Amino acid sequence: MKKRTTGSALALRICFVMVLVAFLLNFNDLALKSIVFYAVLLVAGGLIWGRLVMALWPKLTQKARARFGVISYGASFSGGTLLPIRFGEDIATGERIALQLTIAITIGIWIALIYRFIYKNKPNMRKKIVAGNWKMNTLPAEGVELAKGVVAKRALASNEVNFIVCPPFTHLAQVAEALKGSSIALGAQNCAAEAKGAYTGEVAASMIAALGCKYVILGHSERRQYYGETSATLNRKMEQAYANKLTPIYCVGENLAEREAGKHFEVVKVQIEEVIYNLTAEQFADLVIAYEPVWAIGTGKTATAEQAQEIHAYIRKVLAAKFGAAAAECPILYGGSCKPSNAAEIFAKEDVDGGLIGGAALKADDFIAIGQGFGA
Ligand code: PGA
């Protein structure tokens, strides 16, 4: 396969460079042996490391990826530079420093090449997400049943897919219990704009976080439409979410009249500018966007895969205008009558990174089958 050949060719090239460096720097025999020893160690280690990174990459947030890169360099750097102290006891200090420097630089190049390789071969390494928005459905016992069903069937979909379920507040704790030990994450459908206090009927972000939620849906069109949520409120809710280490799933989307008037681009642009543009780069790195055309929610009408791609690519462009290259890492989900029969076609589009699922998330079989839309 093309991928493997490129990987091994890369490994061989590294090996060659290592040996060349050893000769160019004219090391004595012991140093040369050390260099060759480390070259082999680095190539073997690098190949294993590369595979591990490939497997883990889609599961990590952008922030975690950066941390992962720094840690991997730090760990191999310390390992690589400490080892020669014992290994080459009789190397002169100057040569030892040169050897350590060579190792440090080579590890850096090696790791940079691994990451470059990942992006070149799999440019779309964004997290793949299938999130279930249960809305105001299920009693606690039914919710637990549903969650257990999702856990039981999860293995039918690829490991690369991140499943999230967002039950009503009332049974978050019980569903959290049912999800324990599984890879399914928990999310809430909303949170208060304030931290705590005299706000009868509201639920604070800290409360849902304490129950095990990792995500919170914010700005869903039903909240904007029926509960008058504005960008001003959503800015405060976003702040609360981040303050409590919750990843917001921020929803945008136009209604039918706006779509028919050709205003859909403008509508989502404003929804993003008024809220997402206020985030810091660090907050933006921990964000999921869901594009949900209001006319497709619960109506059985789905945007075509082309319509979804067109607006997802536009959303990414709007994000890039503010956040630059980081926009390429932000997962953008499609929502609105997404079901097993149309998921694969929509998810196949370059800028669609999964779905926010309403009706079809209420059946474990359908929910997981939608996840299979990414391929097994
Ligand atoms: P739907 O809802 O899948 O039932 O259309 C999606 C949503 O509103 O999140």
Largest sheet: 8 strands, parallel, barrel
CATH superfamily of the largest domain: Aldolase class I
Q: Which secondary-structure class do the elements indicate?
A: alpha/beta
Number of helices: 15
Rounded Rg: 25 Å
Give a description of the structure.
- With 376 residues, the protein is of the alpha/beta class.
- 56% of the residues lie in helices and 10% in strands.
- Helix 5 (140-153) links the parallel strand 1 and strand 2.
- It has helices at 2-24, 29-56, 62-87, 93-121, 140-153, 172-179, 205-210, 221-226, 231-243, 256-260, 264-275, 281-284, 305-323, 340-347, 364-371; strands at 128-133, 161-166, 185-188, 215-218, 247-252, 288-291, 332-335, 354-357.
- Helix 3 (62-87) packs antiparallel against helix 4.
- It has an eight-stranded parallel β-barrel, surrounded by six helices.
- It folds into two domains: 2-121, no CATH class; 128-374, TIM Barrel, CATH 3.20.20.
- The structure holds 2-phosphoglycolic acid (PGA).
- Residues 133, 292, 297-298, 335-338, 356-360 line the site of 2-phosphoglycolic acid (PGA).
- Residues 133, 292, 297-298, 335-338, 356-360 line the site of 2-phosphoglycolic acid.
